[in-house]
Amino acid sequence: MSRNKAPSIDMEVGILPFKSNKAFYMCSFALFCSWLTFCWQGLSSVVQIWYGNEIFNHGFFIVPGAVYLIYLKRNELLSVSFCTTPLAFIVIIPALLLYVVGIAGEIQLFLHAATFALLPALIWLMLGTQATKTITFPLVFMLFSIPIGEQLIPYLQEIAADGSVALLSLSGIPLFRSGLYIEIPQGRFLVAEACSGVSFFIASLVIGSLYAYLNLASVGRRVSFIIISLIFPVVANIIRVYGIILIAYMTDMEHAAGADHLIYGWFFFAFVIICLLGIGELMRNSIPDNYSELRKSGKTVVKFDYIIVIVLILLSATFWVSSIQDDDDGGALQALNYDDLRAESCPISLWRPVLNQPDKELTFALKETDCEVIVHTAWFGEQGNELISDLHRAYDPEKYSLVTKDELLIGDHLLTTLLIVSVTGESRVIATWHVVNQTIFVSKTFTKIEQIKMKLLGLKNGGQVWYVSAPVSEMASMEKALKLLIEQ
């Protein structure tokens, strides 16, 4: 195993002089360029999300912020020996595989998670375990760059609705709740996605974690404050929704009933952050600085064998990823011609799923159901679109809200069903399933796994989604329709 003594530390200025540490800098630069090349698609897509989704605008500041946090710890970091470690491979190899799976399955969460797990892992590889321990939080902080959290929206909506209804009931305000709709004598309110408070929740977690690291010394206080930063925005959002409805009730819908309640929300969010920081100040204790002066560093080495291996692995994985991303059509586009099942002269249904860029879709009323059972099916070729995506909705959230989820056994398939209610009080049931490689899947997870397997094998991985909906009063007709469609 070849070794090169590096890097020596300039004890007076607290830096790594380039002249005497060329090997260290060159290896670090090679690793960074390899990471940048391999993760380019993940970086490109994550920047688009940061820019286009206000929930994740903070992503632009996470890595620069982490670098600044490392800079603040420079004295402590430079007083510890640097030694390239193979232990980092326990993160690097799974992250590489996760990225490849993300490419094959077009799963952006996997791409982004792998991208921002690889970066701190490569830093760990270069600095060694002992040195990395001194900057553990800044490296973990980089993971906040991953745009994740939108999956919490339905749960936060439900919590906000439950909490605000409880407070309204305690206040003696007459109300009627149907799903996420809350109706008072003066009007009706929908606890929409914008009212879920997910932006507050994520921002509070990021700010709370950063504040705890910078200002709280003990582990107990840090953990306690992070827990507070998770609970506080949820409780505050409940109070916000309650306050909006209360103001509308007291002013006969003159205030807080329109777009102005969103403006109130941002002022309220600022107030919540101030309160959170105030709580932090009450918990604050000084962090001792044991490294105001640099101590003499021990021997430091760069192990070229590990650097060469990981660079070669990253380059090989880059070519593997390129081979997966072919230019085929993702499978023959399905005709979606079901004239033998379509009922004629039926009115257009208010219900319709919201799908993101299907290659082809079709909505029709099923025969012999008195136009009550509505079928919607769509084909995704997996070229610029995804069969399984968080952007797909079984219903328009502006027109319907979810009441409950249930299951319905049709033959050998246990379908998930959704009970939804419209703003006019119409209740409908929706059942859905997917078809990939002529196989029916009721689980989104297993559908995506099948698509990834086919992609890695070089096969076409396009698929079809089915939605069937009917009024709650027509469940018998819907079950017959489901048997007909699944067994065809």
Helical stretch count? 15
Radius of gyration equals 28 Å
N- to C-terminal distance = 64 Å
Subunit organisation of the chains: single chain
Low-confidence stretches: 1-13, 291-299, 327-333
Helix content: 40-55%
Average predicted confidence as pLDDT: 82
Query: What would you call the structural class?
Result: alpha+beta
Query: What percentage of the residues does DSSP assign to strands (E)?
Result: 5-15%
Largest sheet: 7 strands, antiparallel
Overall geometry: flat
**N-to-C SSE string, H for helix and E for strand:** EHHHHHHHHHEEEHHHEHEEEEEEHEH
DSSP, total strands: 12
Protein traits:
about 15% strand, seven-stranded antiparallel beta sheet, single chain, three-stranded antiparallel beta sheet, about 500 residues, alpha+beta
Describe the structure.
The protein is an alpha+beta fold and 488 residues long. The chain is 48% helix and 15% strand. Strands 6, 7, 8, 9, 10, 11 and 12 form a seven-stranded antiparallel β-sheet that branches. A three-stranded antiparallel β-sheet has the order 2-3-4, with no helix packed on it. A two-stranded antiparallel sheet has the order 1-5. Helix 5 (89-105) runs parallel beside helix 13, helix 9 crosses helix 11 and helix 10 (198-215) runs parallel beside helix 12 (260-283). The termini are far apart.
Structural topology:
Elements: E1 3-5, H1 22-38, H2 40-52, H3 59-72, H4 74-78, H5 89-105, H6 108-127, H7 129-133, H8 136-141, H9 153-170, E2 176-178, E3 181-184, E4 187-190, H10 198-215, H11 219-250, H12 260-283, E5 301-303, H13 304-324, E6 360-365, E7 374-380, E8 400-410, E9 413-422, E10 427-436, E11 439-441, H14 444-456, E12 463-471, H15 475-486
Antiparallel strand pairs: 1-5, 2-3, 3-4, 6-7, 7-12, 8-9, 9-10, 10-11, 10-12
